[in-house]
Design goal:
By secondary structure, this protein is mainly alpha-helical. The chain has helices at residues 2-10, 12-43, 53-74, 79-94, 100-107, 112-128, 132-143, 145-156, 178-197, 203-223, 229-264.
Length: 268
């Protein structure tokens, strides 16, 4: 384990750059699959789904299982806790101090002030566009972030790793990462909304532009030593679970509104 921890700590900045790019490539693959389903749906005379119900259920269940597994693992001083501690210590000694301001700036994109401001602006835009169901789902998703994050933190009460107080001023418990939860929900829901509203030619850009900051934010929290590795992974898993519930609701309301719209049209 020590060899793995040393390697990760040594190449931390490189991984911070490459892993989100891999996420973007994975998003591009998802876009290709979605584009094929869209073509099939249009050929069958159906309105294409942004995300299929089976996919939503599968992702939500896997994310919930991952969170439960990590939550159970950190409750005992086992391999995951030792990995967390060793990685945080190695990053603390090997990460160049000059990288901390950049990492701190990136992490702000997942903080409460930015998320609340951007969420409010998007809600106003949706209301002005008379997207009533979508507005409600957006509001539910964003409002749920804080009580979910703070509620789970209060249950586990895990202390944060040692960090530089000049760049990490967060107070409170460490598990799970609130930044990871908020970035998964905010940027994930933003991607869903934009995929609903924008024409297909923009979908690939939307996926890349939302996956990239979401990935960078979580990794920046690890490198800043604001959170342990498992805090961030669990935060993403928790956020993804909530995100899938909200997207599932939004897709259900979209299908209901489509049926009502079709039923209200006069027959020729």
């Amino acid at each position: 384990m020590n060899t793995l921890v040393d390697w990760i700590a040594t190449h931390a900045l490189l991984l911070w750059t490459l892993l989100p790019l891999l996420a973007v490539l994975a998003g591009n693959l998802a876009w290709r699959c979605s584009a094929r389903r869209r073509v099939i749906a249009v050929a069958d005379g159906r309105q294409p789904d942004v995300m299929q119900s089976r996919t939503i259920a599968t992702l939500g269940a896997l994310a919930a299982l991952l969170f439960a597994t990590i939550a159970f693992a950190i409750g005992e001083p086992g391999a995951l806790v030792r990995f967390d501690t060793a990685l945080a210590a190695d990053i603390h000694t090997q990460l160049p101090p000059s990288a901390l301001p950049v990492l701190s700036t990136v992490s702000l994109l997942g903080g409460t002030p930015w998320v609340v401001t951007a969420s409010t602006l998007m809600l106003l835009i949706l209301l002005l566009r008379r997207q009533w169901s979508l507005s409600a789902c957006w509001a539910i998703a964003q409002i749920g972030i804080l009580p979910i994050a703070h509620g789970i933190k209060a249950c586990f009460q895990r202390t944060r790793p040692p960090h530089d107080p000049r760049f990490v001023t967060d107070v409170g418990w460490s598990f799970p990462s609130g930044h990871a939860i908020s970035s998964a929900v905010f940027y994930g829901m933003l991607a869903y909304v934009l995929l609903r509203l924008l024409p297909p030619r923009w979908h690939r850009v939307v996926i890349a532009a939302t996956l990239l900051p979401a990935g960078l934010i979580g990794l920046s929290r690890i490198l800043l030593q604001a959170h342990y590795f498992s805090d961030v992974v669990a935060g993403y898993a928790c956020g993804l679970t909530w995100l899938m519930l909200c997207i599932g609701l939004a897709e259900h309301l979209r299908r209901r509104d489509t049926v009502r719209s079709l039923a209200g049209k006069p027959r020729r």
